[in-house]
Specification:
The complex is a heterodimer. Chain A has ten helices and twelve strands. By secondary structure, chain A is α/β, with parallel strands linked by helices. Among the domains of chain A are: about 105-175, no CATH class; about 245-325, no CATH class. The longest helix of chain A is centred in the middle third of the chain and has 18 residues, at about 190-210. By secondary structure, chain B is mainly alpha-helical. Helix content of chain B is about 75%, strand content about 0%. Chain B has a two-stranded antiparallel ribbon. In chain B, helix 1 (about 1-20) packs antiparallel against helix 12 and helix 8 crosses helix 10 (about 220-260). Chain B is globular and about 85 Å long. In chain B, about 35% of the residues are buried. Classes of the chains: A alpha/beta, B mainly alpha. At the A-B interface, helix 2 and helix 3 of A face helix 9 and helix 10 of B. The structure holds adenosine-5'-triphosphate and magnesium ion (MG). Magnesium ion binds near residues 52 and 183 of chain A.
Chain lengths: ~325, ~325
């Protein structure tokens, strides 16, 4: 395998646990995936399934009482799990950047936007303040902020939630990183802006080869944007593969349930299917397959955690009783 | 507007309060004075008139900047106090600086590493600083550093130099050695307070998403602490400290007495002993003015530090 073929990021059997007073929360429990240059990986799953913790693990930003327990995170072949703090600091913001989930909380309320953007550039290269400001201005324009020059001198409280999210996205783009972890970056944005951001991000990926991990609840965004998809449930990836094959032909009952609960034009008038029950607490996971209690296909086998089975075309599945292709609804079109 | 009202109300409370405390004539008039001398004395001090008339005279003079003459020194009370003010201000400012310069780093440190031994000792120390009475600590300091070790002088102000028209002592070694002990003594309480505020602020800010986001940008830890954390915790620290500065000046009474520091606090204690009403009233009025003024300055600082507060809001 030549250097350029090797994936930008390869995560192998990652386990990130939180050692809380109530017990060990296995927020990420044996997750593996990879993203290649210029590719987009969609990471979907219900609230609490461990998507954000996966993202923080990649940047080495898991806080107490959490810790990466085992596994490898290979960024261009370099294992980040064993990297020093100094090395991680070099990589963060320059090679790997992240857009956080909550736009209202990600900007420091007492620092001006320009301060917060310029420092992100100057942390990684020797560049004059004026040049850095110029670049900050250009990127703000790219993400659709009108009159960026004025906006640079403003404070975060003078921005709406959607604008703050765009500033956070701009900050992530500033240094043209190789990998961006985007944690529900467009949830706070209206449809036109969302489209503009998606366009900019896709352009960046194809032009500069930036790899993207796009965390979301929204399957329709993933359908239009991602190359591959990972479906997470209670800390584990239950199904992954290329977007088309997974969405057209989901094999895991959970994936099937997620797709059926998305409104679609073709099924207008038909009541939306819902996954029964609630996502389990990580401290009280059911024995065996965590989805078992909510699963329509559950059998006695499901008392044991299913292994990952490899299907054709790189698809992976964690299920004892996978669905076959015929019952699957279509999301696309 | 509001401030002016506060001053007027306070003037009435202060004046009537002092009026009730005791009769200065008993102390000031010598025992062998006869009735006639007594009456003359009372008349000359204006004490023969009814309370409200006395208050009216006081107010009408006060608006012209005359707070009455001291019964004891026969000089304008205001001048006597203003004469002593630089010494007290110097003491308070040095104490404030000590509280800030040591309090913020110690508090931030304790906030960053709450489990470490060092930060636990800092917190224990701050509890002591809160609970030990100032006068007792002052006396212990004199015992230790002046009497036993002989490192520092125990009383007085030492050399003073005239700087910008004010006598200041910190700029000479002799003066500095005199100011050090009383200033530390006066600072202890505020120091403990700054440590606690800075620690609580740091712990809170460190858990905010924007600190994590700053890390995600690859900023150095030093920049995160010195810019992102510090700027946020300065808001509560400056507010509280600013408001407490008036308290620092007012509380210097105890420290000045213990260390025989020739400031206005000591003058106040002496005047209370002699029931020298004009000085007591003038002192309290000056303190009221000081508090009102400080409030204003703090509001302005606050709006500079916190962009969410605008100056227009304060003015209205
Ligand atoms: N600081 C923490 N202490 C203890 N447990 C935590 C902590 N942070 C996360 N967890 C656990 O990790 C689990 C996964 O959280 P995570 O934030 O990754 O979910 P998510 O998939 O991003 O959900 P959402 O869609 O709501 O953002 C949570 O259910 C929680 O139990
Ligand atoms: Mg999340």
């Amino acid at each position: 395998m030549s250097f350029s073929d090797s994936p930008t990021l390869e995560v192998k059997d990652l386990k990130t646990y939180f050692f809380t007073k109530g017990g060990i929360a296995r927020a990420v429990d044996g997750v593996s995936f990879s993203v290649g240059r210029g590719k987009v990986l969609g990471l979907v799953g219900e609230s609490g399934s461990g998507k954000t913790v996966t993202g923080f693990s990649i940047l080495g930003l898991v806080d107490e009482p959490g810790r990466i327990v085992s596994g490898e995170i290979l960024y261009r072949g370099e294992n980040l799990v064993s990297a020093s703090m100094g090395r991680m600091r070099e990589l963060r913001g320059l090679n790997i950047s992240m857009i956080f989930q909550d736009p209202m909380m990600t900007l420091n309320p007492v620092l001006r936007i320009d301060t917060q953007m310029i420092e992100a550039i100057q942390a990684h290269e020797k560049i004059s303040k004026d040049d850095a400001r110029q670049r900050a201005r250009d990127v703000l324009g790219q993400v659709g902020i009108a009159s960026p020059d004025e906006r640079l001198r403003a404070y975060p409280h003078q921005f709406s939630g959607g604008m703050r999210q765009r500033v956070a996205i701009a900050i992530a783009l500033l240094n043209k990183p190789d990998l961006i972890v985007a944690d529900e970056p467009t949830t706070a944005l209206d449809v036109t802006i969302q489209g503009q951001i998606l366009y900019e991000v896709q352009k960046l990926c194809s032009q500069t080869g930036t790899a993207l991990i796009w965390i979301t609840h929204d399957l329709s965004v993933v359908a239009g944007l991602a190359d591959d998809i990972c479906v997470m449930y209670a800390g584990r990836i239950v199904e992954q593969g290329s977007v088309n094959s997974v969405l057209d032909n989901p094999r895991h009952p959970y994936t099937h349930g997620l797709i059926s609960s998305v409104p679609s034009r073709n099924r207008r008038g038909v009541p939306l299917a819902q996954i029964p029950g609630m996502a389990p607490s990580l401290l009280k996971l059911p024995k065996g397959c965590s989805f078992g209690p909510r699963c329509p296909q559950v059998t006695a086998d499901c008392g044991i955690i299913p292994n990952i089975s490899m299907l054709d075309k790189g698809r992976q599945l964690r299920c004892h009783n996978p669905l076959d292709a015929l019952v699957s609804p279509k999301l696309k079109d | 507007m509001q401030s002016a009202l506060v001053v007027v109300i306070m003037s009435f409370i202060v004046f009537s309060g002092v009026f009730l405390v005791g009769d200065p004539v008993e102390i000031l008039v010598s025992d062998d004075a006869d009735q006639e001398e007594r009456e003359m004395m009372i008349k000359s001090m204006g004490l023969d008139k009814p309370f409200l008339v006395q208050y009216g005279i006081f107010i009408s003079k006060a608006v012209r900047g005359d707070l009455g003459d001291s019964f004891v020194f026969q000089e304008p009370a205001l001048l006597l106090i203003l004469d002593r003010m630089p010494a007290t201000m110097e003491l308070a400012v040095v104490a404030l600086l000590i509280a800030i310069i040591f309090g913020i780093p110690l508090g931030v440190w304790a906030g960053l590493k709450p489990e470490s031994l060092a930060s636990k000792s800092i917190m224990t120390g701050s509890i002591l600083g809160f609970s030990l009475p100032t006068f007792w600590v002052g006396i212990m300091m004199i015992l230790l550093f002046a009497v036993l070790l002989g490192w520092l002088p125990s009383t007085g102000r030492g050399d003073v130099q005239i700087i910008l028209g004010m006598p200041i002592s910190v700029f000479s070694w002799d003066g500095f050695s005199h100011v050090l002990m009383p200033a530390v003594n006066l600072a202890l309480f505020k120091l403990s307070m700054v440590i606690r505020l800075a620690r609580a602020g740091t712990r809170e800010v460190m858990h905010q998403d924007y600190i994590k986001f700053a890390r995600a940008k690859g900023l150095k830890e030093s920049r995160i602490i010195l810019v992102h954390v510090l700027k946020n915790i300065l808001i509560p620290v400056v507010t509280v400290l600013g408001l407490e500065f008036g308290g620092l000046v007012a509380f210097s009474v105890v420290t000045e007495t213990v260390f025989a520091w020739p400031g206005m606090g000591k003058l106040l204690i002496d005047s209370i002993g002699l029931l020298d009403r004009p000085i007591i009233v003038a002192y309290l009025m000056i303190i009221v003015f000081l508090f009102v003024f400080i409030n204003l300055v703090v509001d302005i600082c606050y709006s500079i530090l916190d962009p969410r507060v605008r100056l227009e809001d304060i003015k209205s």
